Amino acid sequence: MDDIVSGREKSEIVLIEDNIAQSGGPVLKSFLKSLSERVDKIHYFVFDPYPQKTLENIPSGCLNRIEIHDGFRDIGGWLDSSSISVNTDLVKYFDNLSGRHAKQVVAIVINSVSPLLLHRTVPYTCQTISRLARQIDTADVEQIVCLVHQDLHDNHEVAQLEHMCSTIIRIEPSAHPQFNFCTGILHKRVSGKIVRRLEHFNIRENYEVYDVTEVKMSCSKSSIKEESSIDPTANLTFNLSLTDEEKAARSQVKLPYMHDENRQDATLSKSVGEGKIFYQPDEADDFDDDDPDDDLDI
Amino acid sequence: MFSDLNHLFAVSKENHLQGEFVVISNSKADGSFLIHHFLSFFLKQNRPVCFVGLSQSYNHYSTVAQKLSCNLNAAKTSGQLVFIEGMKLLGDAVSGNSLIKGDNSFVCKAAFDLQQFFMHIKSTLELLKMNQTQDPVLIIDNLSFLLYIGCSIPQLVMFVNYLLQKVTSQCTGSLVLALYSDMISVDENSDLLWKNLSHLCSITCQVTGLESGYSKDVHGELLITWRSRDVKQTQIKKTQFKLSDKNVTFFASGMSSAVL
Predict the structure, then answer these.
(1) Residue A62 in contact with partner chain B when CB distance is under 8 A
(2) Are A76 and B169 an interchain contact pair (Cβ–Cβ within 8 Å)?
(3) Its domain of life (chain B) (predicted)?
(4) Structural domain of B76
(5) How far out from the chain centre does Cα A34 lie?
(6) pLDDT tens digits, residue range B209-253?
(7) ipTM above 0.95, yes or no
């Protein structure tokens, strides 16, 4: 997390996803602060309320490098004022802007893209962001950071945005009292490797990220394994397991259906005709001495 | 005005909810007492109020305010209160009883043109600001009504954006909006509107019924959230309430006098 914020890990487009429960404002401010130390100029597009409040507590040295483009004052173009709205073509607007100070290293921060998604279409928003990242000739765009209120949009809309971003930081409610923030990070490295991590961290008053701790997904798995390896026969009042001697004795026992040479030989060696039939007539039997077939003339 | 509520909202001499945007949601319980409270509270602070009534008639609000020892008629004549009776205007437009005057042109054929409506509210607020010394307050009861008559979510969010920009950014006024929102039900639009507003506002009040069903001693739960956009955590207060004729009593969950 701190590598991405501080810029040690390169990332072209960063997407911060927040929700009602946990605001992404502080994380965005951390990016603003760290970017202001790295680039010549930050262009800060604001479509959310209180544009000035979102810059509170940021050191004034950093503020000099941040240029606010207030999209909130006239967000729908109802007032016919000169400020930008969701209908403004941001790429064209930006091209005209950056013409003034050619070939500076700049960063673009958008807070937030949710109004763009709501009032314009998703493809338009995606196109705008990607064109801002790649098709600006008049300035060198180092990084684009966008905030999106993920719970205001359908999953597929957010998924489309995610596809074109190189880093996705999803802010989740922190389960640990020690940490204020918990984020799921998906980072696509320049080399093509994809890193997926879940991290806890805190943010200082001056918007420095510290105490970054990775939440080990594997540790929860291993604890499940340990639980499963507990011997269920341990505390029984009767004996279920066998000692080695008993096991040996058991293996000696010959079961009736098992193949046994001795028994087979004994069965086969009995010669034919040795069997006799003894008949003992019952007392109640009406035994006739006469030959019942006497009268037959054959 | 309920003094207990002032306590809950941490209202003091310095803090009169200036520059705050309060959203009230009702779900399975009636939270209209909050609207009546805010109306009388702001009038007693001598702040100019623009009230858009979209769920009840003016007489209803006037009668309730009288119970809370606040005279709406007097406030109206002195110019402190401007009451826009949305339902009546819409009814007139549908039945064609009266000609829509140039002033109320935002009501057209059973619908509200939100852009025109905003312009109307804007000029009202500017007038209030000119005549009165304090910052104006805008209260809308109830925003869901606009959703039900066919305004789309993007339109409404845009409308609220402009109201917010007008009321709390240009002058440190206050904005209070009420809406119905049933988190459990299948009304996705209400839920989406609620989420959108929650992202915009500074304080949310959720009035919900008890999970265990209706009770005659506990009328519902009130959850107040101060949304923070900064490092500090969002602050949450949760309490149960019982409404009586002229008052409302609050107590911690499970601490109703009927239970103890």
Answers:
(1) no
(2) no
(3) Eukaryota
(4) 22-208
(5) 27
(6) 888 888 888 899 999 998 877 766 778 899 999 988 888 889 888
(7) no
- CB-based contact A49 B164, cutoff 8 Å: yes
Contact: A25, B233; criterion CB under 8 Å: no
- Of the CATH numbers 1.10.357.140, 3.90.550.10, 3.40.50.300, 3.40.720.10, which one belongs to the domain with range A2-214? 3.40.50.300
Whether the CB of A260 is below 8 Å from some CB of chain B: the reply is no
Span A243-266, pLDDT tens digits: 888 889 988 887 777 777 777 777
pTM score, two decimals?
Answer: 0.79
The pair of three-digit structure tokens given for residue B172, joined into one six-digit string? 């440190």
Distance in angstroms (rounded) separating the CA atoms of residues B183 and B206: 11
Burial of A154 (0-12, 13-18, 19+ CB in 10 A): exposed
- Chain B residues whose CB is inside 8 A of the A53 CB are 229
DSSP string, A62-107: HHTTEEEEE-STTTTS-S--SS--TTS-HHHHHHHHHTSSTT-EEE
- A-chain CB neighbours of B121 within 8 Å are none
Structural domain boundaries of chain A? 2-214
In a mutational test of the B interface, the residue from A17, A28, A50, A158 whose CB has the highest number of chain B CBs within 10 Å is A50
How much is the average pLDDT of A269-274? 62
In a domain, B225, yes or no: no
